[in-house]
Amino acid sequence: MNLALIILVDGISYAGWLFLVGIGLTLVFGVLRLVNIAHGGFYAIGAYVAAYAIGAAASYGLGAGPQLLLAFAGAVVVGGLIGFLVERTVLVRLYDHPEVLVLFATYALFLILEDVTKLVWGGASLYAFQPRNAFGTVAIGSLSYPVYDVATVVIAVLVALGTWFVLNRTRTGRCVTAVVHDREMSAAMGVNVSAIMTGTFVVGSMLGALAGAVTAPKIAVSPGIGVEVIVLAFAVVVIGGLGSIGGAVVGALVVGLARAFATHLFPDLAVFAVYAVMAVVLAIRPYGLFARPVARKI
User: Fold this and answer.
1) What's the half-sphere exposure (Cβ side, CA atoms, 13 Å) at 295?
2) Range of the domain at 155
3) What is the pLDDT of residues 113-166, one digit of tens each?
4) DSSP class of residue 91?
5) Which of 181, 219, 197, 248 is nearest to 24 (CA)?
6) Whose CB has fewer CB within 10 Å in the chain, the N or C terminal residue?
7) How far are the Cα atoms of 22, 256, 259 from residue 208, in angstroms, in the given order?
8) What is the C-alpha separation between 252 and 231, in angstroms, rounded?
9) Please, is 184 exposed, middle or buried when counting C-beta atoms within 10 Å of its C-beta (0-12, 13-18, 19+)?
10) Confidence (pLDDT) at 297
């Protein structure tokens, strides 16, 4: 029973982090039909901004709460600004081109963002563990678990609920849904499609940066952290179904629990768990578990 609880807690904790990493990617694909490899770059920038902000706040004697507030706010603002510049200067010129060209462009942007982090913060690792240590641990059954890791799951739940509310209960969300289904008809009905697409990419960039900021206190922020993350994010959104928010939730849970199960019972195979799950799901459901059916235009 204790092992089952450990697997469950670890799986849900990892799933919460995976959802934060993947939600921006699936949102951008759902609206723009854009496989955004640059998402990993926004994650890395968010992590670096957060680590720098936490270190600066700690040097002024601020507590863990203000440190995290500055870190999250700084990462979101910087991610949003860079996302806006990228979309307005590069991607807006490529929407009418073949998808493979847009894919190459986002890969080039990812490499550029990786180099930007090295130019700004150097090649040394940054450590921002102060907030995670400051919050201590909480007892879950017989386990002692970091409060910060539990808070990560809470943040993921709040982001999921906020995304659902905006998409389903606001006028902006209904406009986004209309653009997803038919851009031409949405434009004919008066929806500012260009603004919706720009706003979606900016929000996706902000969510990627937020995921990096949330992760910063848990890792050594080093060059290359965006590479592994973009692979995991793609695995989650592909399993759930590209463009499906609910699929991202389910995909994160499936991957998180599978990884925790493999880590504790078959540690030698843990590194393959994510990709094994993806292979099985795609063999049964080639477009993911919750992929929307694509209407064929006549």
Assistant:
1) 5
2) 2-284
3) 999 999 999 988 999 999 999 999 988 877 788 999 999 999 999 999 999 999
4) G
5) 248
6) C
7) 8, 19, 22
8) 13
9) exposed
10) 47
User: What burial class does residue 30 get, using C-beta atoms within 10 Å of its C-beta: 0-12 exposed, 13-18 middle, 19+ buried?
Assistant: buried
Which pLDDT score, from 0 to 100, does residue 183 have?
Answer: 85
Q: Domain total for the chain?
A: 1
Model-wide pTM > 0.90:
yes
Residue type present at position 23 = I
**Residue-by-residue DSSP string for 33-50:** ----TTHHHHHHHHHHHH
DSSP state of 292: P
In a domain, 78, yes or no: yes
CB 42 within 8 A of CB 53: no
Q: Does 26 map to a domain?
A: yes
Segments of the chain with pLDDT less than 70: 1, 291-298
Asked if residue 292 is part of any domain, the answer here is no
Structure tokens at 276: 């094994």
Q: Is residue 290 part of a domain?
A: no
Look at residue 293 in the predicted model and tell me its pLDDT: 55
CATH number, domain with residue 246: 1.10.3470
Q: What contacts 24+ positions apart, CB below 8 Å, involve 63-68?
A: 63/134, 64/130, 64/131, 64/134, 64/135, 67/130, 67/131, 68/131, 68/217
